[in-house]
Structure formats: C-alpha cells, structure tokens
Amino acid sequence: MSKSFAGVLPQDAAAARYGGLGIAAWRWIGALALIGLAAALPFTVSNYHAFELTLVMIYAIAVLGLNILTGYNGQISLGHGGFFAAGAYTAAILMHRYGVPYWATLAPAGLVCFALGVLFGLPALRFEGPYLALVTLAMAVATPQLLKYFDSWTGGQQGINLVKVQPPPGLGIDRDRWLYLVVLVVLLVAMRVAANMLNGRTGRAFVAVRDHPIAAAAMGIDIARYKTLAFGTSTLFTGIAGALSAIVISFVAPESFSLFLSLSFLVGSAVGGIATISGAIVGGLFIEFVPNLANDISDAAPWAIYGLAMLLLMYAMPRGVAGSVGLWLQRFRSRRVALREGDKDHKGRMS
Amino acid sequence: MKVKHAVTAGLSAAGLILASGLAAWAAGQYGPGASDTEIKIGNTMPYSGPASSYGIIGKAEAAYFDVINKQGGINGRKITFISRDDGYSPPKTVELVRQLVEQDQVLLLFSTLGTPPNMAIHGYVNENKVPHLFLATGADQWNDPKHFPWTMMFLPSYSIESHIYARYILKNLPNAKIAVLYQNDDYGKDYLNGLRDGLGDKAAKMIVATQSYETTDPTVDSQIVALRSSGADVLFTVAIPKFAAQAIRKVYDIDWKPTHFLNSVGNGVGTTMKSAGMEKGIGIISATYLKDPTDPQWQDTPEYKEWLAFMNDHNLSASIADAQSVVGYSYAQTMVAVLKACGDNLTRENVMKQAASIHDLKLPMLLPGVTLNTSPDDFDPVKQMQLMKFDGTTWRRFGDLVSGAGS
C-alpha cells in the first residue's frame, strides 16, 4: 500500500473567481447540491434499494474509521470487525435491556468503542506494521467466541432481536427511508468531523507519525499520544457504524461479526483510497455490491470474481478510487497552473 | 331515459363483474411470484463460510426442482428456485431475504438455513406476511403459529427428540438416575427442558445432575467426571460432534458404564463416532427419522436407487454419503406436495393454509412409517423418530417408530 499525500498537500489556493464567486463558495454550493441529491435519492428508488444504500453508508462510516487509523496514521488493523461488533452490541443491549431509544445509543456506542480503542491502542504502541496486523487479527478471530461467552449480556449464540425502529409519525415516510436519512446525517457529520481533524494540526501529526516517526518526535510530536488518539478516534467511528447496523438490521448475533467482516473493511478501505475521506463511500459501495454482483455473474466461483475485481481495481488505481482520482485532479491542476505560468512568461517576453 | 341508463349501467356492471370473475377463474388466483407459467421460490444457504457443508441441502433442492420442471412443473407451472449465499451471516440473510421478497418478488421463502439467520428474518417475514416454510433448523421456537403464523419448521424439534428418550427411560429404566451434559445455549436448553417435560413429575427425582459446557471450552472432561460422581446410571449427552466425541471418549476412559443417550445432532458416524473411537461408542442410544444413505439395509430398495440415480444425474455423486443431501431431497419433496395441494390458488394465504394441512404425507427417504402432519396449531411436520443403538460400526435401529408429543 503506497502512502498517499492526498488531503495533506495544501490545496490549490489560486484565488480565481468564477462567475463572481470564490472557489470556496462554489465548493459549498457543490457540496450542498450533492447532499440534496443524496437526501432525495431514497425517494426515487424502491425500499429495498434504499435499505441497500443505507448499508453502504454504514460500511462507509466504518471504513472511514479504518482510514483514519491505517491510511493517515499507518497502523494496520485487521480487527475493526471487533469494534464494529462492540458498537452494535452496545446499542443492542441499551435498546433491549434498558429501553433506550435508538438515536440515543449512538453516543454511548461511540464512547465505549473510543475507550476500547484507546485501551487497545496502548499495547499496540509496541507493535509495528505486520505485528500489529497480527494482534488485531487475533481480536477479529476471538470476537464471535467472546460474544458467545458473555451470553448473559449478549444473548449468546441466539443473539438479540431488537424491536424495529418506527419513523416519527406525521412525517409520512416509511422506516427504510427514515433510517436512510438518519444514517446519511451521521455519515455527513462523521465526514465533516474527520475532515476538520485530518486537515488540521492533528491530521498533520498523524501523517508525520506515519511517514517518519523519528522526525515527528524531533519536531515535538508526542508519538504515543497521537497513535493512541488515532486508534480511539478510528474505533469511535467504526463503533458508531456498528450501532447503526444493529439499529437497521434489528438483530445482532455472533455470526454477524466474523473475521470476514474485518477483512471486508480493509478491502473497502484500500479499494476506496486508504488515506482519503471520500474514498470511504467507494469502499462502502464495494463491500455492499461487489459480492452480490460476483454472485450474479458466477454461482460457481463468486469469490474468484470478487478477487479479480479487487485485483483489477488495485492495478488500475493503486491508490484506491478516491486516492487515484485525487491524484489525477492534482496533476491536471498543476499542469494547468504550469500552462498559465508559461502563458505569463510568454506574454512577458512579448511586451 | 333514466330507466334506460340505469339498465345499461346495471348490465355493464354485471358484465364487468362476470368478466373479472371469469378472468380470475381462468387464470387462477395469484400472489406475488406466481403466474400461469411460473412459481418463484426464494432461499438462503451458507454456500460459503463456516457452515458451508450444509450447502448440499440447497444443491439437492435445486436439483429436485429441476427434475419436477423437466416433468412439466406443478400444474403446468415451472418452479424458479432462487437460492442465494448468505455465508451464515445474519445481516447478509436479512439483506438477501429482502432482495428475494421485494426485488425478485418470490411467492414464498423455503428452507432458509440456520438458527441465527432465521432469527434475523423471523420478524420481517411475519410482518410482511410472506410464507417462511420448512426452515432448516430444529429449535423449538419455530413452532409458534400463534405468534408467528407465517413461519413453519420441518425437522423433529429438539424437545420432541428429548420426549422420545424420556418415554424410553420411563418405560425401560424406571429407576434411572439421570445425568445430563448439555451445551450452554438455547440448543442445549431446548433438549434439557424437553427431557424434564417428558419425564413429567418424576423429572426432579430422576435427574440427579446437570453439567453444561461452553463451545469455547477446550474439553468436557471435568464435566464428565463431575457427572459420574453424582452416582447417575444414565447419561444424556447434548452436544455438537466435537464435544460429543470427547464425552464418549472420557466416559470410556474412566470406565463409567451408564446407559448413554446421545442427541441426533451429535450422532454422525463420520463426525463423532470415528473421532471418539468406534469401539468406545458401543451401546450408545440415539434417534433418527431418515434413511441414512450409508446404511446397507436400504441400498436394495427402489427408493434408495431412485435417490441414487437422482444424485448421480445431477453431479451430486460426491455427496452420496452425506445425510444432508437426503434432508434437502425430502424438503423439496414436501414443498412440491404443498404447491400441488394449492392447485390454481397460489396466494400467500393459501400456501400457508395448505402447508398447515399436510396430512399423512410419506416421503421415500424418511424412515418407513414416518408421516408428515401439520395443523393450524402445529407447525412441526416431522414428529416421529426411531431409536437406534451403535454397534461399533454403524447405528442399528430398534423398537417402533415413536412419536414425540408436540411441544
């Protein structure tokens, strides 16, 4: 996985104005239009597709969490399925045993996973690269069995059946579309928070620790603190995604959180663009749709098709979809800037 | 004028009603997924993942529907069997079942496999009134027509099997002191409660000790030692193959000689008995309801030969030693019988009605004498089993077919 600089390089700060508006204003208009489209989308498709897209967004939030850790901070986790499970079970237990309304379970699930992530991040400080991957792999493998072991809380093998969420009366929308909108709001908030953090001081510290820990330490960055913080923030996002999944599926069981889920997150992260924010959405799309498409193409060897799709994507876009597209845009922009500069030179000589 | 208008209106109304009635009569009555030419059936199976060995059930079902289609279908309608891989992951099952019901518009769901995957869709199918027939799992909770009128199981439920052992013990070992080893989850508890229920008011006196294990435990050795020290002379083991084999070995090694009952989930010759050591399992009692394809006793019967030809014709010959392929074959035959009974009324309501009025249906690969029966209050078709004893190489059936009372 090559390290990407997307999101760290200073943005092209040319103060060009288009149609009387600055670039920042156009960005806002574009973002609002996209959000509007995303909010309108479920009303143009069937309930089932709305449900599928809800799952895409949930996976996107989980992948975003992993991107923070693996992409920006360089710590590989094969165990995020475990944190996803912790978030899901926190929400499920709160709803089932204590009658907490679904929307109030997100914050506790995020906090529990933040705490778990920090605790897990402390010993993880001692492990680098593949060793950390192995430690987190152990966690992914152990998750289903741990869930069965604490069966007085988790319902053991049987899992926990949750009462289905009802949309607020009076709005006149059904459950699937309501949940889509709820998850969309969470996704947008998550992306905004991640962008604020990663494009600022903390994000620069994460990347510095990833790229050159010694230099980072020399610059006064507390490596242990930032690594642990990256772990906690990452699991916070993934835990909230887990809670949303429990709410949307309205059922949790140990089998829901197998090792394969953790691997899927990493695949989604790499395919989307590991050190990007928007790549998480591509990752969510990949996790949700590619296995189904593979099954439709071939009954006999769907996983071979899945693997092939992954290979082709990584071959064509080694930095993931969002990473590579970002790179192309940057090249395009710098070429244009170079052209413009060249233009000026030319004119200068003429005059 | 007014009169004329009224007459015309009346006539045309009558004509319309007649016409729509005729159309309905000619075309049959259809729910989603059914038409003059087709019946769509949805299914989820773990073709990949930890439970993929059960995938043979889905393959045998698809092959059997293929046979029926080649013979012209059911009342002229071809079966479209859409079977998807959920990898035994409940959220995936939810997604696929929604796809089957909302996108593919299947008439019904059939033989969805596994307790957790079915738990995850139980509410959804009943809320949406989709027939959820012949689940491939034996937990007692599926037979609950009052609360879940759209869900119907197939196998003898775990508590029915326990009832059969309880009846045998009451009759042949009336002074038994019973020890129970069970898996600490709903599966194990279904059996334990079934035994208590079957023993009735004698349960408290007869069951002298119980020990449970977790599937995460390394062994059940200490549990077996503890059960022996209770002075019990009957042991009932409720386990999955790995732990059943450990229990059999330990009982033999510490030279304990109880009358040992072993539940049917853990009684596979290949999976349990071989790994325990064939001679260590001699005398163990268990129960079954189908013709084990490895049992030489059946291999000259026309039913077995027909089944074998069916398996070979559909590239399933690698699985002829696998009892699960007999299970899938029998599920599909039951489904076909129910659809035949529906006639031209293929609405979801009528499918449920016909599924709930199976009467003395016999299937070629179930034990002779086993008949399927359901009623609006009883959603568990197979309730009879026969006891069998292990002789060191294979299971030998003995006694009559026994019917466990409904749970």
Quick description:
Chain A is mostly helical. Helices cover 72% and strands 2% of the residues of chain A.
Structural account:
The complex is a heterodimer of chains A (351) and B (407). Chain A is mostly helical and 351 residues long. Chain A has one domain (17-350): Orthogonal Bundle (ABC transporter involved in vitamin B12 uptake, BtuC), CATH 1.10.3470. Chain A is 72% helix and 2% strand. Chain A has 14 helices and four strands. In chain A, a hairpin with a 2-residue loop joins β1 and β2. Chain A is globular. The model of chain A is unreliable at 1-14 (pLDDT under 50). Chain B is α/β, with parallel strands linked by helices and 407 residues long. Chain B folds into two domains: 38-156 and 298-376, Rossmann fold (3-Layer(aba) Sandwich); 158-288 and 388-403, Response regulator (Rossmann fold, 3-Layer(aba) Sandwich), CATH 3.40.50.2300. In chain B, 42% of the residues lie in helices and 18% in strands. Chain B contains 13 helices and 16 strands. Chain B has helices at residues 2-27, 55-70, 90-103, 115-127, 158-172, 186-199, 203-206, 221-228, 241-253, 269-276, 302-313, 323-342, 348-355; strands at 29-30, 38-45, 78-85, 108-110, 132-133, 151-152, 178-183, 207-213, 234-238, 259-262, 285-288, 345-346, 361-362, 371-372, 384-390, 395-403. Chain B has a five-stranded parallel β-sheet with strand order 3-2-4-5-6, sandwiched between helices. Chain B has a four-stranded parallel β-sheet with strand order 8-7-9-10, sandwiched between helices. In chain B, strands 11-15-16 form a three-stranded antiparallel β-sheet, covered by helices on one side. In chain B, α3 (90-103) runs parallel beside α4, α5 (158-172) runs parallel beside α6 and α12 (323-342) crosses α13. Chain B is globular, with a radius of gyration of 24 Å. The N and C termini of chain B lie far apart (69 Å). Residues 21-26 of chain B have low confidence and may be disordered. Classes of the chains: A mainly alpha (351), B alpha/beta (407). Chains A and B meet through α2, α5 and β4 of A and α3 and α4 of B.
